[in-house]
TrEMBL record:
SUPFAM superfamilies to which the protein is assigned, alphabetical: ARM repeat, Leukotriene A4 hydrolase N-terminal domain, Metalloproteases ('zincins'), catalytic domain
Protein name: Leukotriene A-4 hydrolase
Biological source species: Neurospora intermedia
Gene3D superfamilies with a match to the protein in the record: 3.30.2010.30, Neutral Protease Domain 2, Peptidase M1, leukotriene A4 hydrolase/aminopeptidase C-terminal domain, tricorn interacting facor f3 domain
Domain called Peptidase M1 leukotriene A4 hydrolase/aminopeptidase C-terminal: residue spans: 519-658
Length: 667
């Protein structure tokens, strides 16, 4: 479509180190870049690229030239077509030029999207979808022959349809829903799946405001504030409008549609879910939403998004929760009838500050989102449930999960670092507990170093300073050092100087272990000790007064025994504590891991059944790995049986875990 010369010229046009994003990179680095026109910024250091002309790699998971153009506003005019199982329509990107007519093309990310036409400032344009490369997809190049003056906004209107290879969407038939009455669909864009919905600058380093104009025969939920007055009846369908006036990164774009009912659960909150699930969901959440919001606001500053609602999805939702603004998307496994799993909601709410307002600029610094969120989640829950012992109990669980993840990877593995190189890496492959818990332990170590009173002043400063922006680990470091360089903190100088930033950011393996208040965990360990004796006779009263999380800590300790339980012991454990019948998927899954380690074949079918009931990857992936070890045939059969039940992201990950090709052959 285009001559080669055009593309080459355009590619290099973005490289001027004076572009605004290069400037912000400059301020992030500890030293100025080498004296070279072209340079690359990676993991805190400048790499000169004097001969090879490359863009600064601040986010290796985007092919877009967002240094030269930045999306400021996005309008999504999309029709949800349940028959063809696709989204179709137009998306309009308003992109601000960052160079003075130097860039002659806009490059967007895309993945398996059908683009029908692209207009530039309302006129037909010259564009091309380039060949796909993994993991980042197929860049769409749009010619801007005249370029644009710095600050000028150009309008790119893309006519498109999603395809059956779209990784962001799951489409459920009526039969796959609980009331069997209507189909259902939902999106999951984090980390790099937004590009499978429409071409965009799919990087957390770019934030845009949004208008959603979505047509569907069923109720629509989106990551914006509903504009109900503008809902229009279009015969069989309705047009649903939402606005997101706070700029958000593409991974927070979200849609869902189906038979969705809603009920109030707080002053600023409602829960949305299928009509059959509404009552239980309302009961589970209504006592705590306001408390969570108020606690979070005390720790950081007032909630900036208006409403905070929860959409409880069908069981194939692949995560516990997803912090889509205005509507957190959540797994139905949190509706367990005992309010034992709503810590997920405290977590997703906390993202309203850490992640959604203040965002890691790439998936290499994902800990800034998740580590900070774990910290805020634990602060919120501790403030509601009684203080330090609760906080430490949860931190102990986190430490345990971190130890396990690092053991599984091997302690020298790149993915055990706080800052993980993503060059050539799909963020879904690098995803693990590490950024959550290593991130949490780093933030908590800073809190303890400077003292809670001082750290509490830093929190609103940090979130205020970076609101509506994205940052990397070094910008976080600079902000911390800048705050604590104020004269009133001069007595902290020595302590601050002792922080091993490089070690914290780039060392593999476990960080220094903190001292925990183990008071709430000790009872769990004591019970576990008793189970080391083959003569121990359990009774339901052993755990009757415990929280679900205490039972989990106990089960994890048992799972860690040098010797597995005998089959008889494992069965006695399940019976005495009602584990295989539990409605709490966390407990059930933890028990099944013990049973599989004990080679209790009578439990395997229960594992397979659970794998047909939940699609949350946190459970599905480890359970499949466990089942695969003890009964590969059943694991493969179970996967084939439930292939369509799982979300495409989950399906792909399990395929990798089981070594199964798409065609279903084992390899
Ligand atoms: N943002 C994550 C989910 C996510 C991460 C989706 C990376 C895709 C890529 C969400 O906030 C999360 O952390 N969910 C957890 C909740 C838990 C830590 C309470 C989950 O799904 O288990
Ligand atoms: Zn999270």
């Amino acid at each position: 479509m285009w001559g080669r010369g055009f593309l080459q010229r355009a590619r290099f046009a973005q490289l001027s180190p004076s572009s605004s994003s290069s400037r912000s990179l400059l301020s992030a680095a500890s030293a100025a870049p080498p004296n070279s026109l072209y340079f690359q910024y990676q993991r805190g250091r400048w790499f000169g690229c004097s001969t090879e002309k490359m863009a600064p790699v601040r986010d290796p998971n985007t092919l877009s030239n967002y240094d030269a153009w930045r999306t400021r506003h996005t309008t999504a005019n999309l029709k949800i077509d349940f028959t063809a199982k696709c989204l179709r329509g137009s998306v309009i990107l308003e992109l601000e030029s960052q160079t003075d007519k130097a860039s002659k093309e806009i490059i967007l990310d895309s993945s398996y999207v059908t683009v029908n036409s692209i207009k530039l400032n309302s006129a037909p344009s010259s564009w091309e979808t380039k060949a796909r490369t993994e993991p980042n997809g197929s860049p769409v190049h749009i010619a801007v022959p005249e370029g644009a003056a710095k600050g000028e906004v150009v309008n790119v209107e893309i006519e498109l349809a999603t395809t059956d290879k779209c990784t962001a969407l799951q489409w459920l038939t009526p039969a796959q829903t609980s009331d069997k009455a209507a189909p259902f669909m939902f999106s999951q864009c984090q980390a790099i799946h937004a590009r499978s919905l429409f071409p965009c600058q799919d990087t957390p380093d770019v934030k845009s405001t949004y208008d959603f104009n979505i047509t569907s025969p069923y109720v629509v939920v989106a990551s914006g504030v509903p504009v109900p007055d503008e809902t229009k009846d279009l015969g069989e369908e309705k047009l649903y409008k939402f606005q997101q006036k706070v700029p958000i990164p593409s991974y927070l774009f979200a849609l869902s549609s189906g038979e969705i009912a809603s009920a109030p659960v707080g002053k600023r909150s409602c829960v949305c879910t299928g009509p059959n699930e509404l009552k239980a969901s309302q009961w589970e959440l209504e006592g705590d939403m306001d408390k969570f919001l108020e606690a979070a606001e005390k720790i950081v500053f007032p909630y900036r998004w208006g409403e905070y609602n929860v959409l409880v999805l069908p069981p194939s939702f692949p995560y516990g929760g997803m912090e889509n603004p205005i509507f957190t998307f959540a797994t139905p496994t949190i509706i367990s009838g005992d309010k034992q799993n709503i810590d997920v909601i405290a977590h997703e709410l906390a993202h309203s500050w850490s992640g959604n307002l203040v965002t890691s600029c790439s998936w290499e610094h994902f800990w800034l989102n998740e580590g900070w969120t774990m910290y805020l989640e634990r602060r919120i829950l501790a403030s509601i449930h009684g203080g330090d012992a609760h906080f430490d109990f949860s931190a102990i669980r986190g430490w345990k999960a971190l130890e396990e993840a690092i053991k599984e990877y091997g302690e020298d593995h790149e993915f055990t670092k706080l800052c993980i190189s993503h060059k050539g890496i799909d963020p879904d492959d690098a995803f693990s507990t590490v950024p959550y818990e290593k991130g949490f332990h780093f933030v908590w170590s800073l809190d303890r170093l400077v003292g809670r009173e001082n750290f509490d002043k830093f929190i609103p400063y940090y979130f205020g300073k970076w609101s509506n922006k994205s940052l990397d680990s070094y910008e976080f470091k600079d902000t911390f050092l800048e705050f604590f360089s104020a004269p009133e903190y001069s007595d902290l100088k020595g302590k601050i100087a002792s922080i091993d930033w490089e070690g914290r950011f780039h060392s593999t393996g476990l960080p220094p272990k903190p001292e925990f208040d183990t008071s709430l965990a000790d009872v769990c360990y004591e019970l576990a000790e008793k189970w080391k004796s083959k003569d121990f006779i359990p009774s339901p009263s052993d755990v009757a007064l415990w929280t679900g999380n205490q039972v989990l800590v106990f089960l994890n300790a048992v799972q860690d025994f040098e010797e597995p339980l005998t089959v008889e012991q494992s069965q006695a454990l399940g019976k005495a504590y009602g584990l295989s019948e539990s409605k709490n998927a966390e407990l059930k899954a933890a028990y099944y891991h013990i049973a599989m380690r004990s080679k209790d074949a009578s439990a395997y079918q229960g594992v397979a059944d659970l794998l047909g009931e939940v699609g949350r990857m946190k459970f599905v992936r480890p359970l499949f790995r466990g089942l695969n070890k003890v009964d590969r045939e059943l694991a493969l059969k179970t996967f084939e049986k439930n292939r369509e039940f799982y979300h495409p992201i989950c399906r792909q990950m399990v395929e990798k875990d089981l070594g199964v090709s798409e065609a279903g052959n084992s390899s």
